[in-house]
Amino acid sequence: MVATGYEFKPSQIACTGRLRGVLERIGDAELALQSGEIADQEHMRRQNKPFSAG
């Protein structure tokens, strides 16, 4: 199939979960590098999250 131009190339990032779940687990610095509406929503959620004492 390679000779006919149908070569399968897996994506560099394997996603097995929901994007929101992935964004919840990354750090603030890495989140700042992400673009898109869902990343923006996660950033706003973190800003509005109340601080916990403890």
TrEMBL record:
<protein>
    <submittedName>
        <fullName>Uncharacterized protein</fullName>
    </submittedName>
</protein>
